[in-house]
Amino acid sequence: MRVYVIGRGYQATEIDPADAARRFLVWLGRAGNPTLDRMIQLWLSQPPDVGGLGALAESARDVAMLRALVTASWPAEPPDDGTGGEAAQ
């Protein structure tokens, strides 16, 4: 996968798509990231005919429980490889 690294003057580089996907899941699953909570709430509220539940969570605790179950099977955060999460050279 070819990308242009923003922090390096938009230098073109190749990255492994599987590594990019793994890093994305780690980023999305971080407890401080509200994006996954919003996605879960959106999914809950979608009608069943489009794959949602057509429901609203009773509390933030319920969304947190779903978040924990969703992220339980995701990869663990990788060790710091010195790139700061930037694309590999």
Topology (SSEs and partners):
Layout: E1 2-5, E2 11-14, H1 17-29, H2 34-45, H3 60-71
Antiparallel strand pairs: 1-2
Helix pairs in contact: 2-3
Q: What proportion of the residues is helical, as a percent range?
A: 40-55%
Written as H for each helix and E for each strand, in order along the chain, the element string is EEHHH
What is the structural class? Answer: mainly alpha
- By DSSP (H or I, 4+ residues per run), the number of helices equals 3
Side-by-side strand order of the widest sheet: 1-2
How much of the residues is beta strand, in percent?
A: 5-15%
Distance between the termini: 12 Å
Instruction: Give me the count of strands.
Output: 2
The outline comes out as elongated
- Rg of Cα set: 17 Å
| Low-confidence runs of at least 5 consecutive residues | none
| Average pLDDT rating | 86
- Largest β-sheet summary: 2 strands, antiparallel
